[in-house]
Design a protein that fits this description.
alpha/beta; Rossmann fold; 2 domains; four-stranded parallel sheet; 8 helices; 16% strand
Length: 278
């Protein structure tokens, strides 16, 4: 029997995001059930179940080896290795390995491209925010359209640099016919969403697509939309649309399962503790 997969989320008081995280854990549990691998999920802080509770539950069910995978699009937060080390102190029989973060996997970039196309589609959209001033807005060529890729934002410059790297990769692999792909952040570091939109306006964009580089919907996405709304209210000449998050889907599950299998292959012999995340 393979060791269980433990998905580790950052955690917040956001019930919407927590619910989608839970649905994604269930999706993976159904997928990995065929390979006799258990799947659990836990948060580092604030939301439930906490990481400590999930680990204790796995130990109680007889699992003393596991793969801990940070459900993150960028660098692993400092809390993650510290939290896992603490769990090993609490449970001396526990051994574990870690999987790499999800981004910027080519399949993640492909999912972003799908969300972008959904946002620019002429079909009615019920989810993404659409800021236009006319009932029948004009059509624009991709060369008139800019994209603002929005990450969460961090106090870690290396994590923010990774989001800039994703923007460039996305532009060259999936959005090369668009005017530009600018980078913005929800909080903690500039530029914010208004700053990214303003740069696109100054570059001459007539339409801007705000593309959240976020896994799940919730308060973070609402902040992105709110910032875009506030900017759009003062710039009615711009057609501003907001795409959806990556979301709970089979393609994202494929990436996680590959990270899980990769972690299993990279461990030599018994899993002897936390290994480096490249």
């Amino acid at each position: 029997m393979k060791p269980p997969l433990l998905l580790v989320g950052q955690g917040s008081h956001d019930e919407t995001g927590s619910a989608e995280f839970g649905r994604f854990v269930h999706r993976l549990r159904c997928r990995l059930y065929q390979t006799a691998a258990d799947v659990s999920g836990g948060y580092l802080r604030q939301a439930k179940p906490l990481l400590s509770d999930s680990v204790a539950s796995l130990i109680a069910r007889g699992h003393h080896r596991l793969v801990a995978l940070p459900l993150s699009l960028s660098r692993v937060a400092e809390e993650f290795p510290a939290a896992m080390a603490l769990e090993q102190e609490r449970h001396p029989t526990l051994t574990y390995d870690t999987g790499r973060p999800l981004g910027p996997d080519p399949r993640v970039l492909a999912l972003l491209a799908e969300r972008l196309e959904e946002a620019v589609s002429d079909l009615p959209q019920t989810g993404p925010l659409r800021l236009v001033t006319d009932d029948d807005p004009p059509r624009y060529d991709p060369s008139d359209t800019a994209v603002v890729l929005v990450g969460e934002g961090s106090t870690d410059p290396a994590a923010n640099a990774e989001v800039h790297r994703v923007s460039r990769l996305f532009w060259e692999t999936h959005a090369f016919d668009y005017m530009t792909v600018e980078t913005a952040f929800v909080s903690l570091t500039p530029p914010g969403v208004p700053g990214g939109l303003e740069r696109c306006r100054r570059l001459g964009a007539r339409r801007v697509i705000v593309l959240p580089y976020l896994l799940f919907a919730g308060g973070m996405l609402e902040r992105v939309w709110a910032q875009a709304l506030a900017y759009g209210a003062g710039h009615p000449e711009l057609d501003i649309r907001c795409a959806e998050v990556i979301g709970d889907c089979e393609a994202l599950a494929d990436v996680v399962i590959d990270r899980y299998e990769e972690a299993l292959k990279s461990s030599s012999g018994p899993l002897a503790g936390l290994q480096s995340v490249s």
